[in-house]
Amino acid sequence: MMMDDLKGKVCVTGAAGFVASWLVKRLLLSGYHVVGTVRDPDDEKKVGHLKRLEGARERLELVRAELMVPGSFDAPITGCDGVFHTASPVIGLPKSDPKAEILQPAIDGTLNVLRSCKKNPSLRRVVLTSSSSTVRARDDFDSALPLNESSWSSEELCHKLNLWYALSKTLAERAAWKFCEDNKIDLVTLLPSFVIGPSLPPLLCSTASDVLGFLRGETEKFQWHGRMGYVHIDDVALSHILLYENENAKGRYLCSSTVLDNHQLAAILSARYPTLPIPKRFVKLDRPHYELDTSKLKGLGMQFRSIQEMFDDCVESLTAQGHLPLIASSLKPTS
Ligand SMILES: NC(=O)c1ccc[n+]([C@@H]2O[C@H](COP(=O)([O-])OP(=O)(O)OC[C@H]3O[C@@H](n4cnc5c(N)ncnc54)[C@H](OP(=O)(O)O)[C@@H]3O)[C@@H](O)[C@H]2O)c1
């Protein structure tokens, strides 16, 4: 039997992205045949790292697709048993038009992908990469109780505070649930918190650049985060595959290791990497305290790596890529 026959064929949208590249890596290592969609398969700077993954030569196809082009995903999705829809704009601040830059590609793009899923008779399940920002952007909850998957971010608050990314993910996930219920598509959604770890793409995505900035002493982005959940990129990839493979997976799944205030994160990291100029002072924001309840995903067997492990891997990789001085990771404690 060929390796392809063992695990079947799956599509990953936005395959060259930070999260998706690691998912593709894990899917190939597990024996899947992967069809990865990218906006430009000829752009070696964007896709070269995917072609070099173990198993890529035998089991990775890269196909052009664009979220805003109707029918663009028909060809890559046809014949796949599973679809991992990760493509979505991850932009902190839009240049001029949040609707065109963030909201439409996220929401209309998700529906575009799902329309292609509907046309595919061999489809078994869709795993949508949503975000913990679809749960926590609200100010009307009891801080004593951890937020779980029953919570949805407030569209009103997102509008009021210009939280375009959170709004895009919230509306995209809601639209996906409605479309899949109407069309009897088996959908499961994964809601990662802030993803930390090595970047396979050599060009750092927006969140990975924010982390690099923080490790180099910039306060701005993490000041705005205030309190945030963090999760290791490999745990995010493994969680996607767990939700795809586990017959009992149903509904939404928060995916997060630890929630920390920015000053708590800064204290852990400055003690661990004393040579890095990690910011020390943050203005306390008037936002509600929250925890995330991840017992649903843990109930399927997922175990999350610690803050220390995710940042060790991240710092090591940023150092190897030349973004941080060598001394940062060589002075890292061994425990
Ligand atoms: N990073 C995090 O902390 C985090 C946390 C929770 C959830 N997520 C979710 O994880 C997914 C991936 O995010 P990421 O952090 O890996 O960011 P990323 O590296 O910027 O990946 C985003 C991907 O979406 C693709 N994309 C954007 N607009 C597109 C369009 N109009 N047509 C086709 N493809 C388009 C990008 O393609 P190009 O490569 O061509 O630009 C890229 O591959 C997103 O759904 C995001 O919401 C991320």
Automatic annotation (TrEMBL):
Enzyme Commission (EC) number: 1.1.1.219, 1.1.1.234
GO terms for MF: dihydroflavanol 4-reductase activity; flavanone 4-reductase activity
Leader sequence segment: none
Pathway stated in the Swiss-Prot or TrEMBL entry: Pigment biosynthesis; anthocyanin biosynthesis
GO biological-process terms attached to the record: flavonoid biosynthetic process
SUPFAM superfamilies documented for this protein: NAD(P)-binding Rossmann-fold domains
Domain of life of the source: Eukaryota
Reaction(s) the record says it catalyses: a (2R,3S,4S)-leucoanthocyanidin + NADP(+) = a (2R,3R)-dihydroflavonol + NADPH + H(+); (2S)-flavan-4-ol + NADP(+) = (2S)-flavanone + NADPH + H(+)
Every NAD-dependent epimerase/dehydratase domain range: 10-249
Keywords of the record: Flavonoid biosynthesis, NADP, Oxidoreductase
Family from the record: Belongs to the NAD(P)-dependent epimerase/dehydratase family. Dihydroflavonol-4-reductase subfamily.
Stated role: Bifunctional enzyme involved in flavonoid metabolism.
Name recorded for this polypeptide: Dihydroflavonol 4-reductase
